[in-house]
Each structure stands twice: as structure tokens, then as C-alpha cells.
Design a protein that fits this description.
It is built from 10 helices and no strands. It is an all-alpha fold. The chain starts with 10 loop residues before the first helix and ends in a 6-residue tail after the last helix.
């Protein structure tokens, strides 16, 4: 009598998630070590050289101010890079067809890519925080809120990476998303300075930058002070994340630019 095997609905999802995690782990020198070294150089510049000489927030050194922004910058960059590079390479190599014929629902497809990207982003964020201990000590006023904001930021930019990978038609157009959208948003979002010290016009324009809410919320959770209440930062971040998730789900559900 032959053995009867039962199909497990979540097995394709778990398999896809394992594949995505192993993909970035196999090239850890590029996906994990390189961004950690880059962040370490920032920490050296702003921690060891400028950290004790300037201050933009009363009661805190500049190193304490800038470290939360550098941690979140690592999280965001790597969450975006993981989904965008993986999905685009699958499209470019043509093996996305193999995924589309598997019994993976669009929700499982997005969740597997997103969780792998969040894992990579949060690993880099934790590594940057550990290295930052050599330069300054952070008070961690609201640790659960800080972890929640980092998870929310990685989720949001994992969705943005999926969307960029679907719309990109070649490597140049994919790099435009990181060079001309993501990078300016990060540098103008308050990583290196508080928005409150800007002239009123530029401070008002900065409120249109979604990164401002994530960076300010993460810094507020760690230092206990910020330009906005934590609830406002979480609320706007969650709305943006849900909007991008819905956009990605719509594109993947229809197979937009994935079946051709």
C-alpha cells in the first residue's frame, strides 16, 4: 500500500522564504558585511571625530543623535535592496515563471520576500547598533517602540523594493529608484540633523518626506525626544506601509510584468 502524502498549504511559502534567506546569506560579504562597514565609517566620522564637538539636541552628543538615524538607514537600505534585487533578477533570468507556476498565493509570495528582506535589514541594524557601542551609549527610553519602528520601516521599504523591481525595465532604471528616490529621501529625512532647526519653509517641506516620520519616530523611541509624538510617527508609517503593501499585492496578483 503506497504511502499517502498530504499537501501542506504553507510548505511552498516556507520553501520560498528559506530560498530568499539563503540567497542573501550565501553572499553575506556583499549583503551584510559591506553595509556594516559603510555604517562603521559613518560612525567613525560622526562618533569619534565630530561626536563630542558639536551638538544639535540639548542633553545629547551629536554621536547619540546621529546613531539612531544610521541604524535605521541600514535597515531601510538593505530591506529595499533585498526585495528589489531578488525579484528583478528573477525577472531578468526568467526563473520568475518557475515561481508563478508553484502553489504560492500572492499574499504568501509577498510575505516570503518581505520577511527575508526584514531579516536582512534588521540584522544590519543590530550590527550597526553593536558597533555604535564603541562610540556612544544610547538611553533606549522606549525599546519596544524602537523595535516596532525598525520592523515597520523594513516592512515598508521591502514593499517599495518589490514595486521598484516590477516596474524596472533594466538595471539602470532599477538603480534610479535607489539613487534618485531612496537616497535623497534618506539624506533629507533628518538622519544627520533635526528638522526643527531648519527654516520654516524647508521644515514644512520635510514633512512631505515619509522618511522623516520613520527616522524621527525611531530616534524618539531611543532618545525620548523627537519632533513629533510617537503615535503620529507610527500612524503615518503604518498608513504608508499598508498603501505600498496594497500596491504590491495588486501588481503581483495581476502578474503585472511578471508573466511576460
Amino acid at each position: 500500500m503506497s504511502e499517502q502524502r498530504h499537501f501542506t498549504p504553507w510548505l511552498p511559502f516556507v520553501t520560498l522564504l528559506q530560498k530568499e534567506v539563503r540567497r542573501f546569506w550565501r553572499v553575506a560579504s556583499q549583503t551584510l558585511l559591506t553595509p556594516i562597514i559603510t555604517a562603521s565609517l559613518y560612525l567613525f566620522v560622526f562618533g569619534a571625530t565630530l561626536g563630542e564637538r558639536i551638538s544639535v539636541l540639548p542633553g545629547f552628543s551629536y554621536a547619540q543623535f546621529v546613531i539612531p538615524g544610521l541604524i535605521l538607514m541600514g535597515v531601510i537600505n538593505n530591506a529595499f535592496a533585498n526585495t528589489s534585487s531578488s525579484l528583478f533578477m528573477s525577472r531578468y533570468m526568467g526563473n520568475i515563471v518557475d515561481l508563478l507556476v508553484t502553489p504560492v498565493t500572492p499574499a504568501q509570495f509577498i510575505l516570503a520576500y518581505t520577511l527575508a528582506a526584514m531579516t536582512r535589514g534588521l540584522l544590519v541594524g543590530v550590527a550597526v547598533w553593536v558597533i555604535s557601542l564603541f562610540f556612544a551609549e544610547l538611553p533606549w527610553v522606549h525599546p519596544p517602540a524602537a523595535i516596532g519602528m525598525a520592523a515597520l520601516a523594513s516592512f515598508l521599504f521591502a514593499q517599495f523594493g518589490l514595486i521598484a523591481a516590477i516596474y524596472a525595465s533594466n538595471f539602470d532604471s532599477l538603480s534610479m529608484y535607489s539613487n534618485f528616490i531612496l537616497l535623497p529621501l534618506i539624506y533629507l529625512g533628518g538622519v544627520f540633523y533635526p528638522i526643527s532647526i531648519l527654516p520654516p519653509l524647508w521644515a514644512g517641506l520635510s514633512h512631505l518626506n515619509p522618511l522623516f516620520y520613520l527616522i524621527d519616530g525611531f530616534r524618539h523611541a531611543i532618545l525620548g525626544v523627537g519632533d513629533l509624538p510617537l503615535t503620529t510617527a507610527f500612524g503615518i508609517g503604518a498608513l504608508l506601509a499598508l498603501g505600498l503593501f496594497g500596491w504590491a499585492a495588486l501588481l503581483i496578483g495581476k502578474g503585472y510584468r511578471l508573466r511576460s
